[in-house]
Design goal:
The protein is an alpha+beta fold. It has eight helices and nine strands. Strands 1-2-3-6-5 form a five-stranded mixed beta barrel. Strands 8-7-9 form a three-stranded antiparallel beta sheet.
Amino acid sequence: MPRFTDTATCLARFPYSETSQVVTLLCRERGKLRGLAKGCLRSSPGAVARFTGGFEPLTGGTATATTRPAWELAAVTGWDLQRPRHGLRASLERLRLGCYAAQLADALLAELDPHPGLFDALATLLDALAGPAADPQAALLGYHWSFFTELGYRPELGRDVHRDAPLDAAAPATFDPAAGGFTADPGPAAWRVRPSTRAALAAAAEDARPADRVAERAEQAAVRGLPGADLARANRLMCSYARALLDRELPTMRYVLGTGSPPPGAATAAGAATAARR
């Protein structure tokens, strides 16, 4: 594949040598990319000119790289930092949520599988978290919904996933992560969910926009006025859903679920993921 230039978000970086780094980038048109940025830590004028601003997780810029089928890592030959997002470092909560969102994208996305809508959703979330006005939980819920929708895992809200029948929004319901939605059946593997949590997810669905418009608003209107507790519970449910899809818990998931706590409200007979009712 020839050399290309693409808008990208830095998901992670790791030292490779004294002068080089291995970076994970989410490119808008090329998808997730792992590459070697050779010489990016050098202080020579040429290196500084090719890698302006340096690689920092959660920042955005323009990346230049070359990939080949025989290469395990792409060759990242340029980086122009354009979105430093300094505001993320001003709040520990916002920084943690941003790290979780980036790690979730890294874990569930295959390499070189482009999802422009997901890229826009992550950039929108990070920009919102970097600003002082946005509600972090509302912004994260919008990201969760866009993320699962883009990857084909959008939760089914209006129909019972076991009975294939309409589901009353006010009736008691549980969430079945294996079936990807809500049901009236209180099965042993399902998680009990509060109606207000389902309403928060419905608000996120109402706010959903096509992929080419997801970046237009940093915080969606319908979820903006919801109580913070309902937004947090909805985010914990979506985080638990992601954990079930991955069959493992990412280190940053504790920032959403709560350190050392099972996902609140996920009540199962086996007690694998449960405590209070959502």
